[in-house]
Design a protein that fits this description.
The chain is mainly α. It has a domain of 231 residues. The protein contains 15 helices and 2 strands. It has a two-stranded antiparallel ribbon. α1 runs antiparallel to α4 and α4 packs across α5. 39% of the residues are buried. The mean pLDDT is 89.
């Protein structure tokens, strides 16, 4: 026993919380810039430049959270890392190729001669599709227990579509917040068309999660848990309604409430993540391995925790500074 209690209990729990927080922040932050990439084909060349300008100061730092989450999984839960990455090897590889395509095309599209710019714009869109779809596939397969059966593969494919639409929604909401004029009006339309997919995706994941495990069913549908957890689906429905109503009324002449779709979409993602985290706890590999069984030795975890407590505030600090410095509407993209 230590001052903080049993380290075999609180250390794995602390690292699971840090890993979960990293994944959530990544999904929100990199989600909107992936969404901007998914919307590229529907914009004019000038609008694409402004879309890139809206994410330019942030997109690289946003991906830091993915690196942190995977790093925490590797060092804190090495047994789970091996099982999860083995089951998801192909979609992880596709995601990495997509991220590489996005990074390269982001830099090269501004340097390419005009006749070749379309190729880098296409690469940026394709990389965004690959990344978003791969992440959706991984989410769906994880929810279904990481087993490759016909029904699980079908659900993973549907999840890939739904998460891509979710990213398109938050990307459009970001553009509503960061742009004005014709592009903002187009973004409102894109958000309206994406909203249905988000609702369907949340409903599908919410239904599949308890059905795949009697343990999860009992966590949600026994008393008093059923009543204690009721605010999660109720708030989700409320936020979907807020999104629908706000998107029907935007844009406004004074640009009031341009922040509302982005904020409401973040709220939806947070609620969905909290529901998933509650459902699967204490398992890190669904129904196979708990965070306590997969955790590294307490001594190793404690040393790594000291490092994490320095690194995470630095990441938060420079990210917050970037968002503060580049607050307000995105301006036209210039390199002169």
């Amino acid at each position: 026993m230590t001052l903080f209690g049993d380290p075999t209990i609180w250390l794995p729990l602390a690292f699971a919380a840090l890993m979960g927080l990293s994944i959530l922040i990544y999904v929100v932050l990199d989600g909107y810039d992936l969404g901007v990439g998914l919307l590229f084909p529907f914009a004019t060349p000038k609008e694409r430049d402004r879309m890139i300008a809206s994410i330019g100061p942030f997109w690289d730092a946003n991906e830091t959270w993915l690196v942190l989450a995977v790093g925490l999984l590797l060092v804190a839960f090495p047994l789970a890392h091996g099982v999860i990455l083995t089951a998801l090897y192909l979609p992880v590889a596709i995601m990495l190729i997509g991220l590489i395509l996005r990074g390269v095309s982001f830099e090269f599209r501004v340097k390419a001669p005009a006749p070749h710019k379309w190729a880098w714009n296409t690469a940026f869109f394709v990389g965004s599709v690959m990344t978003a779809a791969a992440q959706g596939w991984m989410l769906g397969l994880y929810v279904m227990g990481l087993d490759y059966t016909a029904i699980n593969v079908a659900f993973a494919a549907a999840s890939a579509v739904f998460l891509s639409l979710g990213y398109a929604l938050i990307g459009a909401a970001w553009l509503i917040l960061k742009t004005d004029g014709d592009l903002q009006r187009k973004a409102v339309g894109w958000a309206r068309h994406s909203l249905w997919g988000v609702g369907l995706g949340i409903a599908a994941i919410s239904a599949a999660t308890p059905l795949m495990s009697p343990r999860i069913w009992d966590k949600w549908f026994t008393v008093p848990e059923f009543f204690l957890l009721a605010p999660l689906p109720i708030l989700s429905v409320v936020l979907l309604a807020v999104l629908w109503i706000s998107l029907r009324r935007l844009p406004t002449e004074d640009d009031h409430f341009a922040w509302l779709p982005f904020t409401a979409t973040i709220g939806l993602m947070v609620l969905a993540f909290v529901g998933l985290a509650y459902s699967f706890y204490p398992y890190v590999v669904p129904e196979r391995m708990t965070i306590y069984e997969a955790a590294a030795a307490p001594g190793s975890l404690f040393i790594m925790l000291i490092g994490v407590l320095f690194v995470v505030p630095v990441i938060i600090g420079y990210s917050a500074l970037a968002y503060w410095v580049f607050r307000g509407k995105a301006t036209d993209l210039r390199y002169d």
